[in-house]
Amino acid sequence: MARSRMWTLVLLAGLSAAKYIVPGGRWHDTDGSLVNAHAGCVTVDKQTGKFWLFGEHKTEGQTEGGGVSVYSSDDLATWESHGLALAPVEGHPYLSPSNIIQRPKVIYSKATNEYHMWWHADNSTYGLLLQGYARSPNISGPYTFVSATAPLGNWSQDFGVFTDYKDGRSYALYSNGDRKEGRDVYLTSFNEDVTGLEKVVHRFDKYDLEAPTIVQTEKSYYAIMSHKTGYRPNNVVAFRADSLAGPWSQPFIVAPLNTRTYNSQSGFTLTIKGKKKTTHLYLGDQWDSNSLWESRYIWLPIEIDDRKKTLNLVWHDVYDLDVKSGEWSPVTGRAYLAADAKTAGGAFKQEANFASKGTIVTGIYGNDSTVTFEGVEGTGKPQWVSFYYQNTDDMGFGDQPGGTPDRIGGTWQLRRIASVVVNGNTEKVETLFQRDTHKGIILSTPLLLTLEKGKKNTITVGGLWNGFDYKGADLDRIVVYPPEGTAGRH
Ligand SMILES: *[C@@H]1O[C@H](CO)[C@@H](O)[C@H](O)[C@H]1NC(C)=O
Ligand SMILES: *[C@@H]1O[C@H](CO)[C@@H](O)[C@H](O)[C@H]1NC(C)=O
Ligand SMILES: *[C@@H]1O[C@H](CO)[C@@H](O)[C@H](O)[C@H]1NC(C)=O
Ligand SMILES: *[C@@H]1O[C@H](CO)[C@@H](O)[C@H](O)[C@H]1NC(C)=O
What does UniProt give as the signal peptide span (predicted)? Predict the structure, then answer.
């Protein structure tokens, strides 16, 4: 009996050894560095099935023009860095560190048997609005610069690509800038070789959207784009059509109102045709304009109902995706409510009908005004813990392109930073970034914490300096997830 039970456990562990996908968490590569590939794409190597992530390389002091990084993965969760696929070149008219090298996309070209990289190429004042093009026989690069051109004579800012699985043809998507004559998004076919553009297939006229991508189902195409509010997130929208040339539907919002698409911007989608299921993933960016190099990634499964012609993003703190079968399932955690936690100093519980048990903890500040969750069960292994909070610093004005954060000429704060201390160990203070939400909107940020095995852990949350003040956001609850590879997959 005991023996067979042990075998079952071993088998289960073996089956579910995959790593979790944790939107908004700090993602580390296999060297332990933050994954640094923003506003890019995932290209699948058809031969090996490997996923290759490309994106803007950002460091403190070099947030633009840092080149294009590349990572590889077998499971979309474990990422190995391969350095820069496209490196900046001092003095180059389009690749110098003072250029804009944004939203890189990589497509395999059957005709040339090479990988072709396209991106938004510009000077630092966005005066050129070109499409950069480089190529490599190797998916990991290095990519050789070919040109930077105006697509069919027009301007090109935020850049996206899409490949139709039915006929293999690829398309470029690009917003054509902020000038009065622009403010459109173009959908233009590449030539067969993916070496240049051919023909405008559709123009999303004067919607003033950006960060475009297309996701394809058997029946439909959904074009997903964001509004233009700089690095502040907004309500991402989608359009639907039976064919790329249209007619396209009216745009509709894809995530719950006022969550600003869970604090993210669109940019890419990835379809996984697994053995059992096809799963579409939204690959969004959670920009942090106060420290762009620390921007995070919001990757979520997309729920599409072609009959109802709807597309929705549903939040999951932690989910388990099997890239072979295509199946995914949310991981279930255990919640501890702020209403039941202990406050200290000036932190206090306040009625909030939108919060758990009608109560939220506010007034969290510095090291003395804190809230402590007690009796938290842990395993002794690193576990994701999600902190659900409300932060109204920017008063909801973040949605407007020309909005200002307060009425007295204030500055955008965009995020607070809370301190998180486990079992009173102040030698190890974790920093929890809490983005601006809206009044009454509760969102979450995950942290990877190691709790002691057993039910006696405490988690204390205070406030750290965010460049403006020591405030922590109002807390609703925390949710503790099982360690990676132990939740099982069904
Ligand atoms: C960028 O290009 C535009 C158009 O050529 C030009 O007017 C502008 O001065 C350039 N900006 C910089 C920083 O060179
Ligand atoms: C292709 O990539 C591999 C592994 O990164 C490297 O060893 C090889 O030299 C590259 N080939 C070219 C032509 O760059
Ligand atoms: C780009 O296209 C817009 C319409 O979408 C047009 O009004 C504008 O003149 C074009 N710009 C250039 C440089 O061709
Ligand atoms: C809280 O403590 C940390 C060190 O643990 C210190 O750096 C920080 O300044 C303190 N904050 C306040 C508001 O006293």
Answer: 1-18
